[in-house]
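Final report, closing paragraph on structural work. Over the funding period we assembled a curated collection of sequence-structure pairs, and we close with a single example.
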Amino acid sequence: MNYIEVNNNQRISVFSIPVLEYDIFADVIANFLTKDIKYHCVNYFGFPEKGNVKLICCIADDSKHSINVLSSIVNSNDKLQSITTKHFALHIFEREIHENFGIDFIGHPWQKPVRYPFNRADKNNIIANYPFYKIESEELHEVGVGPIHAGVIEPGHFRFICNGEQILHLEIQLGYQHRGIEQLFLEKKNLLQRTTLAENIAGDTVVGHTVAFAQAWESLCDFKPSEALQFERVLALEHERIAIHTGDLSAICTDIAYQLGSSVFGRLRTPIINYFQQWCGNRLAKSLIRAGKTNFPFSEQLAEKWFEVINAYKPDFKEMSSEIFDMPSVLARLEKTGTVSTETATSIGTVGMTARASNLNRDIRFSHPAGFYQKLNYQPILGKTGDVHARAKLRMGEINASIELITKMLDKFPKHDIKENVMESPLADSFVVSLVEGWRGEICHCAITDENGELKMYKIKDPSLHNWLALALSVRNNEISDFPICNKSFNLSYCGNDL
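Its predicted structure, as stored:
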């Protein structure tokens, strides 16, 4: 067989992953991705292996709740046929592999740098000489935004080509703050240090990325978390979703100059995010998620406090949501602005909220549920129009769904057993892929250990890696004044991309 089929968080021997000649490897991947929409690439990366580069690709089968894993060993001097020519969603993965190792992919539309890592293959590629797409015309002009922005946000550069006010093309340049987090996972040997790294992959997704790390680490150790641990992680993931979606609705209102919506949603976010501080001492949920244990077990008092917070939240949220989605001046700004069609969303490989707003069913809670999610039978909410309105309304729907989900969970929740298992060290020569549906979308952490059980590869994928291109395509033929609202409707992560 050309691949091995695994489940989310299933540890396997790294030697059980089939190693194929590259041409066969590329054909198998292309055949999966072009055969059926149920297949999509959750990760594709390379790492050094005995003087060569080992490529590993993970293709999710959303209908079977499984992941097909295959590999190939190539040389950094090789020129390989690009898989992007057959399925465009692979473009960003091949660009990253080219940047890291210098491998040329024949037929790739443009092997531009992704994030300028410190250990990239060609140090002559620097951020100052990024090869922007250009159109030569006296009637067109370029507009640059960033990397330093008016607000206190992360750096990223947006280069528009415009005809008057109309956007013809947007190119997004990232890579300004590469922190080398994947390499730090290998250098830091202490579990707490690695957990702290996971908490800081993306500051607005502390729970999402730390749960992915905890699940991956536990799988490497053949540790099965208790039902109480699994329950608390799902509760934290859904609560994080409520908090960030609420803040995003405030920001969307800000960008259309609807001050009442901005103020109300902003106020509503604060007690939601502050609930984490009452639970674990940190309003962003740092210190809450730990592999193999918890330092802050959930309790009856925390459940009572959650209902107190949510019961105060719901009336104002319901009224404000009804107001913004029924107000003509708001709808005029949201509807038919920043549209990404289902066909486009599928072809470029979008995931998470971005995909679902375009009526593409990509939700790990449904397709690859892990832990306590397996008990919940979550059904994704889908939009139809793929515009700013769809992305805003999806947030409202998911907030209500998360509240309902947690309410049912708290009806009877599991307690920790004082005799819970003790986690051992990672097993040697192991591979695991951990998928989590963060509030933004599909998070993927892949880990490989060596013959001593030490990490030899740790690969992180934030959903933003898939979705930045969707933002660039969404603004075409829109006016440049619509860019802020388009941008906020996606709310993608700079640091999640740059790592």
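The radius of gyration is 22 Å. The longest strand covers residues 39-49. We thank the funder for supporting this effort.
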